[in-house]
Amino acid sequence: MAYFVTLVHFTDQGARAVKDTVKRAEAFRAMAEKSGVKIHTLLWTLGQYDLVIVAEAGDNPAVVALNLSVAALGNIRSQTLTAFDANQMKDIIAKMV
Fold first, then answer.
1. Which of 32, 47, 77, 82 sees the fewest Cβ atoms within 10 Å?
2. In which domain, by residue range, is 38 found?
3. Quick count: other Cβ atoms within 10 Å of Cβ 91?
4. Contact yes or no for 2/89 (Cβ under 8 A)
5. What was the pLDDT predicted at 76?
């Protein structure tokens, strides 16, 4: 399983409907589960980003499909990073030449 960190900005539409953000997050969690993506953490933040999401999935296409589905709703723009835990980094370092 791979980890993903998604950094989220509200669009103008999403900001106008910010009172629905918790409901949208619940719908997102349900959508993610149907897509085979496990949401570990979803946090609203102050600063450069409005939300930070930590997720886990079996493959990149599942995350990309979920992100595209959510983006099509028009409430957010996001950037997703692939992340690695300590054990995965040990494996990666072992492959260095």
1. 47
2. 2-94
3. 9
4. no
5. 97
Computed from CA positions of residues 54, 59, 64, 69, in that sequence, does the dihedral angle turn out positive or negative?
A: negative
Task: For residues 35 and 28, give the distance between their C-alpha atoms in angstroms, rounded to a whole number.
Answer: 10
CA distance 57 to 76: 21
Q: Give the total number of structural domains in the chain.
A: 1
CATH of the domain at 51: 3.30.70.920
The Cα–Cα gap between 18 and 78 comes to 16
Q: Identify the three-state secondary structure at position 82.
A: strand
What is the value of pTM for the model shown? 0.92
**What are residue 81's phi and psi, to 5 degrees?**
-115, 140
Cα 93 from Cα 86, distance rounded (Å):
10
Which tens digits make up the pLDDT trace of 29-70? Answer: 999 999 999 999 999 999 999 999 999 999 999 999 999 999
